[in-house]
Amino acid sequence: MIDIKGFTIAYYGIVIVIGMLAGIVLASHIAKKTGQNPDDYYDLAIYAIICSIIGARLYYVVFRWDIYKDDLLSIFNIRNGGLAIYGGVIAAIITTYVFAHVKKLSFPLMCDTACFGLILGQVIGRWGNFFNREAFGDYTNGLFAMQLPLDAVRSSDVTKQMLNHTITKEGIVYIQVHPTFLYESLWNLCLLVALLLFLKHKKFEGQIFLLYLLGYGVGRFWIESLRTDQLLIPYIKYPVSMLVAVLLAVVSIALNVYLIFFKKKQVVETES
C-alpha cells in the first residue's frame, strides 16, 4: 500500500492502471501501423476500460457470492482485488461491438487491434496478483516455487498439502506454492510476441482476435487447473474459467476453419 495523506492506494491498483495505459499505447500504435485512426482506440479505451472493470467485478461476485451476500457494500471495493479476466473480456467485446456499430467501423478489425492492448495489459496486470498475494497454485517444490507468509493469504486458498509442507523462518510460517500469476504473465507474453509476428500474415479480419482466444484459452485451462482460488460453477463445482477457456478455444478453431477453408472454397466456386 502507498499512503498519501491518509489515502491508501493498493499496489494492485497501480499495476492494473499501468497495464491499461501500456495496452492503450500499444493498440493505438498497431492502429496507426495498419492504417487506422489511433484516436478511435483512445475513444474506445474510455468506454471499454469502465465496462471491463464492471464486467470483471460482476463476473467475480457472481461466482463468489458467498463472500459478498452478507456485505453488499464490499462489492464496490476493488482495491484489494476480485476481478475476473473473462468477465472483463466479455464486457470489452460487447463494448467494442457497440462502439464499432455506432462509429461504422469494422468490428473484427477493431478486435484484432484492441486485443494486442488487452494481452499486454494482462501481461502486466497479472503482477497485481503478486502484490495482493493471490492467484497462486497448490504446493510445489519446483524451480519456480514461491513462498508466502501463511497469515498474509486468504484461508480459503490454503490447502492441506500446503499446510503439510510449511516452512518456518524467524518465527514466520510460509507456504510454498505455484506462482500461477507468473505462469500466466509469461504465457501471455509469448502469445503477444507470436501474434505480433503473425500480424502481417493474417488471412481475414478477426483472425488475430480468434487466435488470441485460442492461445489464451489453452494456457488458461492448464494454469487454472493449478490454482486454489478457482471460481466454481454452482452445484457441479467445476472451474468456470476452464469451461469458458474450452468453449472459446473450440469456437476459435471452428471459425478459423470456416473462414479460411469454406469461405475460400466459396470464392473459388464463384470465380469459376
TrEMBL record:
It is found in: Cell membrane. GO terms for biological process: lipoprotein biosynthetic process. GO terms for molecular function: phosphatidylglycerol-prolipoprotein diacylglyceryl transferase activity. Its EC number is 2.5.1.145. The chain crosses the membrane at residues 9-32, 44-62, 83-100, 181-199, 206-223, 243-262. Pathway: Protein modification; lipoprotein biosynthesis (diacylglyceryl transfer). Its main location: membrane. HAMAP family: Lgt. This is Phosphatidylglycerol--prolipoprotein diacylglyceryl transferase. It comes from Lachnobacterium bovis DSM 14045. The lineage of its organism: Bacteria, Bacillati, Bacillota, Clostridia, Lachnospirales.
